[in-house]
Structures are given as structure tokens and as C-alpha cells.
From TrEMBL:
It comes from Streptomyces nanshensis. InterPro entries: ANL_N_sf, CapK_Type1_Caps_Biosynth. Gene3D superfamilies: N-terminal domain of ligase-like. This is Phenylacetate--CoA ligase family protein.
């Protein structure tokens, strides 16, 4: 791994973290214009999609609606050579493959320059979350990271907690690592904490927890942090576009406005910029400003998000992600065939302090099954009855079932889908 590009990008990120709005705007415009012209000139597929005169006239984010939306099907169906810029091939780039939570796993290819930005982004995420060079980092994930070169000096020591292993094996690896800094899916870390509590083991060595990849109920979050005695931060990121947003010291999830441009697509197909001028909700379209080998412009990530004004008092002048909702594909259907995003129902459930984890599943139109893992000591019958009443009030006419379960199984990628539509429900 080349350290110079990482350090250069790290310095740049720190310099722009609290930059004034006009400076951020100038940086975004510079990078965006360069990206669009690079894509049109050097990428075969973009030469088909973007006319030379369109690229020449492009001036900034306000011109993005003149460009086509890039769907993940493009990556799934097309040969890499159609999407790679001139001079790049599968042989001289590094691949990153998505988890496939959308049902369409794709592979993104990065140049060494792209990877310098990626590594700096992830390192800055951890530094912003309170990482210290002498911390012992536990990564909860299926595959391990490459060993960091600084580990030979006793710095940034990394320990892999294999989330495909049994819970006993995960707990054993966790205790052997004695981590002070934890990174991973919230529900995986919560499972380890619950098992420690069941065994009567109190682990107080962790200082910080960096959550990412999914939501955790307030009850479960409080339990994890209470047991560990740690503070938490959160990131919103993906394999394709790296870090989209990270929390500040006040807990607000700020867009990384110097590195990505975000638009929100509405139900009617119109698009509004997530520029912090007002609250807006829609399906997220992301343009990754640092994508040399395989440019990503107006990429449909598959999430639905709500972005609010840039009014946090932490000193950053960037919009705040208020909610990251379920995958856009996970839309419930009523008897009339009308589809709607069901993420709002989760708030009717997570408000119950007895609920540790949850999942909403639709098996047929106008039906929803709510699976809940209850906190220790909670009586199932009265709680599930109250949850059912709250959900019925939110979706009148729906057949609502509430199941108290011991655990909620994650998908093959290790994540728990909070809102899930089974195939029969779409028929």
C-alpha cells in the first residue's frame, strides 16, 4: 500500500472538513467538471451517453439533471471494458464487490489513485470517531483487511472478528483481541455484547464504537454502549461510493460534500439537490468525485434518504442526513396495488423500549409481520399486542402479525434487512 497518496488525501480531507460554503462549492465544481469531461472523453459507455457538447457546456451540480442516471444494472450486465476509462483494465485495477443486498451484486474497479482516496476516507472516518494510533481495532466482518504496514511498529493493530463464524467463536476472538476500538454492523456487535452479558462477562476495554451498514434500535444501542462504556459514531458508506456521510461530535450525520454530490429523486421522477437549503426526501443518486478508473456519475445506490439543512452547530457547513431508509426495492403493497416505502413503520416499533431488534416482513399485499427480539425481562404478550395496535394505526386495513423471536437471521451479506418484502408479496 502506498502511504503518500493516503497522507495527501488525509490532509486534503482535514483541510476541507470545516471549509466555508464558497470554498466547498468551488472544490465540488472543479472536481465535478473534471469528472464529467474525463468520463465523456475516456469511457466507452459514457461516450454513448453524454454528447461532447454537453460535457463541454457542463458547469456544476445544477447541470447534473442533463446527464443520465447510472443504474447498477449497467455494472451487472456490461463488460468492464465498457465502463473503464482509457488506460485501465481489470489487470491494472483493484476490484471491490458489493454485498448484493439489492439483489444485484456489482464489481467496481479502482485505480491506485482511487484507492489512495478510499483508504484516506476510511482512515479519516476512524480518526473522526476518536481512533488513536495505539488503539487495538476489532473489525466485525466476513473477510479480513490487509495488514496495515504500521502494525510492525505496534500502531493501528487490527483484529478480524469473522462474522461468518459461530457466536462462540466471535466472542472468543473478541476477548482474545482485547479491542479498544470497534468497527462493524451494529447487530453483530450487539450479539457479542448480549452473549457477554449472558455469560456474566463485563468488558470495559472499548473506548469507541464505529457503527455502519444498518440501523440499530435505540434500546439495543443503549445496551451496547452501556455495557462497553464507550462512545459511538456512525458512517453511511458503500463499496461503490465510499463514505457518503459521517457523524460529527454532536451526532449529526453530515454529507461529505467535498467528495460526493448527492441528488434526491422524487416519486414523479423529478430530482432535487441535497444542498442543505431545505429538508428533502427521495431515492439517493450519488456522484463520486474521485473515480478515475471507473467514473460514477448520478449512480442510483438503491437507498431512500432524508437530507436536512446545513444548520448543525458543530462548525461544518454541510447538509445533514436525517434518515437512511430501507432499500428502495423494499416497498410494501396494499390491496389496491399501491406501493409505498415502509420505513416509517419502523418508528412505530422502535419507540417501544422493550424492543431490542426488529424486522418488518411483507408476505402478501396488505399484510405485515413484525418480528421483534425483546429485551430481557419483557413480557411478550402485552408488548406484542401494543406493537400490533401501533402498526395497525399506522397502516389501517393491513393484516398485522407480531412475532416475538429469539433472533433475526441476517442476509448472506451479514446485514439484517429491517424492511423486507418476500417475492410472493410482489405478485
Amino acid at each position: 500500500m502506498r502511504l503518500v497518496p493516503v497522507l495527501r488525501n488525509l490532509v486534503r480531507t482535514h483541510r476541507l472538513e470545516r471549509a466555508a460554503p464558497d470554498r466547498l462549492d468551488a472544490e465540488r465544481r472543479r472536481l465535478l467538471v473534471r469528472l464529467v469531461r474525463h468520463a465523456q472523453a475516456d469511457v466507452p459507455r459514457y461516450r454513448e451517453l453524454i454528447a461532447p457538447e454537453t460535457a463541454a457546456a457542463f458547469r456544476g451540480p445544477e447541470d447534473l439533471p442533463s446527464l443520465p442516471v447510472l443504474d447498477r444494472a449497467e455494472f451487472h450486465e456490461r463488460a468492464p471494458e465498457e465502463l473503464l476509462a482509457a488506460g485501465f483494465t481489470p489487470a491494472n485495477t483493484k476490484a471491490g464487490t458489493t454485498s448484493g443486498s439489492s439483489g444485484i451484486p456489482i464489481t467496481i474497479r479502482n485505480s491506485e489513485r482511487d484507492l489512495g482516496y478510499l483508504r484516506a476516507s476510511y482512515l479519516y472516518d476512524m480518526l473522526a470517531a476518536g481512533l488513536r494510533p495505539w488503539d487495538r481495532m476489532a473489525y466485525f466482518r466476513v473477510t479480513p483487511f490487509l495488514r496495515h504496514p504500521l502494525e510492525r511498529f505496534g500502531l493501528l493493530r487490527t483484529f478480524h472478528i469473522d462474522t461468518s463464524a459461530t457466536l462462540d467463536e466471535q466472542v472468543g476472538a473478541f476477548l482474545a483481541a482485547r479491542p479498544t476500538f470497534l468497527v462493524g454492523f451494529p447487530h453483530v456487535i450487539a450479539s457479542v455484547v448480549e452473549e457477554l452479558e449472558r455469560r456474566g462477562v463485563r468488558y470495559r476495554g472499548a473506548r469507541r464504537v464505529l457503527f455502519g451498514g444498518e440501523r440499530l434500535t435505540p434500546t439495543a444501542r443503549t445496551r451496547v454502549l452501556g455495557h462497553l462504556g464507550a462512545r459511538c459514531h456512525e458512517v453511511y458508506a458503500s463499496v461503490e461510493v465510499f463514505t457518503i456521510a459521517r457523524t460529527c461530535r454532536r451526532g449529526s450525520l453530515h454529507l461529505r460534500a467535498a467528495d460526493v454530490v448527492v441528488e434526491l429523486e422524487q416519486e414523479d421522477g423529478s430530482v432535487v439537490p441535497a444542498d442543505g437549503s431545505r429538508e428533502a426526501e427521495g431515492e439517493i443518486l450519488v456522484t463520486r468525485l474521485h473515480s478515475e478508473a471507473m467514473p460514477l456519475i448520478r449512480y442510483r445506490l438503491g437507498d431512500r434518504v432524508t437530507v436536512g439543512p446545513a444548520d448543525c452547530g458543530c462548525g461544518r457547513h454541510t447538509p445533514v442526513v436525517l434518515r437512511v431508509q430501507g432499500r428502495s426495492q423494499d416497498r410494501f403493497r396494499d390491496l389496491g396495488g399501491r406501493e409505498f416505502y415502509a420505513d416509517f413503520l419502523t418508528y412505530a416499533v422502535q419507540g417501544f423500549p422493550e424492543v431490542s431488534r426488529m424486522q418488518l416482513v411483507q408476505r402478501r399485499p396488505a399484510q405485515v409481520t413484525v418480528r421483534v427480539v425483546l429485551a430481557a425481562g419483557a413480557e411478550a404478550a402485552p408488548v406484542t399486542e401494543r406493537i400490533a395496535a401501533a402498526v395497525r394505526e399506522a397502516v389501517p386495513g393491513f393484516d398485522v402479525e407480531v412475532e416475538a423471536v429469539r433472533a433475526i437471521a441476517p442476509e448472506a451479506n451479514g446485514k439484517i434487512r429491517i424492511v423486507k418484502v418476500e417475492p410472493a408479496a410482489t405478485v
